[in-house]
Amino acid sequence: MSAIDLYATTLLVYFGVDVLAAWGLNLQYGLYGMYNFAFILFQSVGAYTAAVLALGRPTHQFGGQQYFFGASLPFPLPIIAAGLIAGVFGLAIALILRQGMRSDYEAIITFVIAVMALVTVSAVIPLFNGEAGLALVPQPLARTLQVPTAAYAWIYVAFVAIVCLISYVIIRRLTASPLGRAVRAVRENANGAAALGVNATWCRIVVSVLGAAIAGVSGALLVEFIGTWSPGSWSYAETLVIFSAIIVGGVGNNIGVLIGVFVTQIVFAEGSRFLPTSLPPNLVGSLQWIIIGVMTLAFLWFRPQGIVPEKRYCVPAGPADHRPMPAEKTGPAAVTGSPLIPGDGSHD
Amino acid sequence: MINTAAAQGTRPVLEVSEVSLAFGGTLAVNDVSITVSPGEILAIVGPNGAGKSSLVEIISGAMKPAGGKVVFNGVDITHKPAYQVARLGLTRTYQLSTEFRQMTVLENLLVGVPGQRGSKLRFALAGRRTWGQEEAELRVKARALLQDFGLADWEDTYAGSLSGGQRRILEIARALMTEPKLLVLDEPTAGVTPSIVAEIERFVEDLRDRGLTFLIIEHELEFVERQADRVVVMAAGRVVADGTMAKLRLNPEVIDAYLVG
Question: Does B185 lie in the same domain as B126?
Fold first, then answer.
């Protein structure tokens, strides 16, 4: 595989994976307003799940890695399982963050959960091989396809693109539906939404589970491409990068978020590789973080709605949508024959 | 205490029996009982801290009482969450408007349709073809309400951009989308101009003519006198009087508690 193929396919897979994760977080944060600083945990759960379900039994593996369970499930079962297990973690987070909890408490609690999870996985080696992490995760269908490495990498890019497309359709359907509207209503005013019959707890569970499942799949796609996963891959700071992509792209807008990922992860993160070599070597890596941080602050100050703001729901009225007003009556009783008043109909 | 429903031989829409609510040892609501009859406009008045809004919180399911019972249309709703109470047909507005700021005026109304097809996960994920027709019908209803409430020209405007008075009217219009059997208005005239108060009065009258039952928490006594069939006076968490406004103006206990000045 040429260097260009390697660079381009790796970049595109990372881009697709980051877009999936950002869409998942956008469901939780953009659509619902959940301050989940443990979001990277879902991606990690997906990655570890897919890894142990593809690696086989630990005793049979080269390198003496220690990990919990272990199986050799065929493609695409490890990826599907990753989404499901991450979804279970999403459910747990939704239940831990109780309805009506202050957003600063949400942020603190999820941050603590992220740190606890990272410390636990790093310290308990039999779980996922501790700090060293898991390696040699087999690439799906690599033996079946029997194609050159470069061709395989491009096929994998196409597969990631398909998963992104399917995820987009699912997210788009949810956000454009009355359920998505109810979720946004909870974000805007939970008490007001409850007074109109919206079950805010269910809304939180839906976005948390779906967002986590998508992030889990993103982790599975990444680990099955790069073949390794360790605590270094999912520090809590990674969640901040995804938040940055959402803020830059446009909170609540999935196309905006895609652009935000492109800007933060591709343009600026990759662009920093071309910084002058005269700079101190340690500074170049840190500059990626500094640039992303400054860019996030700049957007919060000067364009908090992001590059592509959340879409405004406007449906042009058809001829039947506006009735002529009776000249003698202007109050709500003019809703002649409308089932808006009790006794005329029921919503149950 | 007058029990209008019992006097008329009809079942009350709302029966609140001996409810209490404490905040840190202080009884905000102390053994309060009220009933609201079908088609009635019941107003609750009282000085600040009388426990009026806390009582609304209990009735609407936003807070759980320490004791007592709330029955709505024969259903015990004492321990039901607010969204379930709303789905039964008891809808409330808030003292401070709770409009969904970054949603259009039309969307604000469309939220108020519990049980619609597209709000179920399986239909939402199945796509617009499974709920689009119902949504179109609901838009017609919502637009009719917006026109009646004078908000038709603002349907695509974010609710957060409306004036305070328009937001108050939007909140009432939004509540009507739930097809309430009892509408609880928490200080509907607070902080709005006299012209908006007049509009709100007109809406209340029109809706009452169509049979809607109201429970109104209000400070503006002239509004109460014009609109309410019956008035409950609260002070220090307790009901101190219950009757018509004319009768209450002669009650020394009420004068002491509230009407002085």
Answer: no
Within the 20-59 window of chain B, which residues sit less than 8 Å (CB to CB) from chain A? none
Interface predicted TM-score (ipTM) of this complex, two decimals? 0.91
Do residues B189 and B251 share a domain?
yes
Count of domains in chain B? 2
Model confidence, pTM: 0.89
Interface contact flag, B207 A313, Cβ < 8 Å: no
Q: B113 touching A, CB under 8 A? A: yes
Q: Assign residue B202 the CATH number of its domain.
A: 3.40.50.300
DSSP code per residue over B48-86: TTSSHHHHHHHHTTSS--SEEEEEETTEE-TT--HHHHH
Q: Is the pLDDT of residue B50 over 60?
A: yes
> Cβ separation of A189 and B213 shorter than 8 Å?
no
Contact check, Cβ <8 Å, A194/B87: no
Q: Which residues contact B44 (CB under 8 A, 6 or more apart)?
A: B34, B52, B55, B215, B216, B217, B218, B231, B232, B233, B234
- Convert the pLDDT of each residue in A61-106 to its tens digit: 556 789 988 899 999 999 999 999 999 999 999 999 987 788 899 9
| Interface probe, candidates A340, A344, A348, chain B, greatest B C-beta count within 10 A | A340
Identity of the residue in B82, B112, B125 whose CB atom sits nearest the CB atom of A173:
B125
| DSSP-derived secondary structure letter, B162 | S
* Selection from A78, A112, A80 nearest residue A93 by Cα: A112
- How confident is the model over A27-73, as pLDDT tens digits? 999 999 999 999 999 999 999 999 999 998 887 555 678 998 889 99
Q: Is the residue at B168 inside a domain?
A: no
How close is the nearest chain A Cα to the Cα of B252, in Å?
Answer: 37
Task: Enumerate the domain spans of chain A.
Answer: 3-234, 236-311
Do B123 and B26 fall into the same domain?
A: no
A residues 190-229 near B, CB within 8 Å?
191-200, 206
Distance CA(A240)–CA(A36), nearest Å, equals: 10
**Among candidates B111, B126, B149 on the partner chain, residue whose Cβ is nearest the Cβ of A332:** B149
Q: Domain residues for B121?
A: 102-161
C-alpha to C-alpha distance for B121 and A203, rounded to whole angstroms: 10
pLDDT, tens digit (0-9, with 9 covering 90-100), for A209-244: 999 999 999 999 999 999 999 999 998 888 999 999
Whether residues B95 and B106 fall in one domain:
no
Nearest CA in chain B to A343: B181
Is residue B201 one of the residues assigned to a domain? yes
| B133 and B86 co-located in one domain | no
